[in-house]
Write a structure and sequence with these properties.
70% of the residues lie in helices and 0% in strands. With 370 residues, it is mostly helical. The chain has a single domain, classed as ABC transporter involved in vitamin B12 uptake, BtuC (Orthogonal Bundle), CATH 1.10.3470. Helix 2 packs across helix 3. The two termini are 18 Å apart.
């Protein structure tokens, strides 16, 4: 495969730094509104469709605080569909934005949490906490209340942050993006080996709980856990929106960014912390979700025809939430009692996008300022 696919990493000695292209923010508000409406439509579909047919008026009555004609319908809406829809919306937005942040940070179109091993680092943090608490059953830390949920989220965020920092530290010594991806694979294998050792010394109940979590799902978040997930994701998304201008300048390369007055080191640290917050929170409660972080930012660039992060960040949030909701809907197979693995559905959606990225090398390079 040609190395031209992978733009050079931003480094102080990069001689190809150049000003970012001018953009007109007034050209695309309609597309952003359309993406927001798409996410809203997908949210409504997740509430309407499922293995049990519930009349729309009954769903609306329950959402407005009333009761459905059947108590089972009320339970399905409030305890299954609504938390699943909220989880998918938050997780899709978070993972998509974290993918956009990493692609810009490394100036690499194939950078994402699952590709670079950041998900694996978060998974290692979760495995350490699960082993320490001795969780049993299908839901991780379900019996440990707020302290257990906070420990799980904190461990995943710490694991993601440490892994991303390590990758960035080594990446600055690399001359192309291909070794970076290989580095991500090696870190993923290393964390997998450590997790395997932890699981080897665990009791069968803990092993089964961790395996179930590892499949990835939007169904396991309870209302008690929702404030933690929503709080972390919303804080991360707000921080990402504040990074729009620094991200645009970083696209030009570190040398030019520094000459423009950007504090490059501080910006990198802010991106790492934000990415760890978004990736860690979602991975802690939903498991490692693949493909969405790499595919959605490219879809959004193609729809908006811009590399300006002031547009890409809100667009990626909306599109990521919509894609995650649609993937959740497909995995549930409405009208059937069968449930497909979420990551299998994500792969079906994400692989064609990645293949398109490879086939359209030149246009992808231009998006990263290469």
């Amino acid at each position: 495969m040609s190395h031209a696919l992978f733009p050079p990493l931003p480094a102080a000695h990069n001689t190809g730094d150049k000003p970012a292209p001018r953009v007109n923010l007034g050209l695309r508000p309609g597309l952003l509104v359309g993406l927001a409406l798409l996410a809203l439509l997908a949210f409504v579909l997740v509430l309407l469709l499922g293995s049990v047919t519930i009349p729309p008026q009954q769903i609306l009555a329950v959402l407005l605080g009333g009761e459905a004609e059947k108590s089972s319908w009320t339970n399905i809406i409030l305890k299954v569909r609504l938390p699943r829809a909220l989880t998918a919306l938050l997780a899709g937005a978070a993972l998509s934005v974290s993918g956009l942040l990493m692609q810009t940070l490394f100036r690499n179109p194939l950078a994402a949490a699952d590709v670079l091993g950041v998900n694996s680092g978060a998974s290692l943090g979760v495995a350490l906490v699960v082993l320490a608490y001795g969780t049993t059953g299908g839901a991780l830390l379900a019996g440990f209340g707020l302290a257990g949920d906070l420990s799980l989220a904190a461990a995943a965020m710490l694991g993601a942050g440490v892994t991303l920092s390590l990758i960035l530290l080594i990446a600055r010594r690399l001359e192309s993006g291909l070794p970076l991806l290989l580095l991500g694979v090696m870190i993923g294998q290393l964390t997998f080996a450590l997790v395997s050792l932890l699981i080897y010394f665990s009791v069968p109940e803990r092993i089964q709980a961790y395996i179930n979590w590892g499949f990835g799902s939007f169904n396991g978040v309870t209302w008690a856990q929702m404030p933690i997930l929503a709080g972390a994701v919303l804080a991360g998304l707000a921080a990402a929106l504040c990074l729009g201008k620094p991200l645009n300048v970083l696209l030009t390369g570190e040398a030019y960014a520094a000459s423009m007055g950007l504090h490059v080191r501080r910006s990198r640290q802010a991106i790492i912390i934000t990415t760890a917050l978004l990736t860690g929170a979602v991975t802690a409660f939903c498991g490692p979700i693949a493909f969405i972080g790499i595919a959605v930012p490219h879809l959004c660039r193609g729809l908006l025809h811009t590399s300006d992060h002031r547009l890409l960040l809100p667009g990626t949030m909306c599109l990521g939430g919509a894609v995650a909701l649609l993937a959740s809907l497909l995995a549930e197979l409405p009208g059937s009692s069968l449930v497909l693995p979420l990551n299998a559905v994500m792969a079906l959606l994400g692989v064609p996008v990645i293949l398109l990225i490879i086939l359209r090398q030149r246009s992808v390079q231009r998006s990263f300022g290469a």
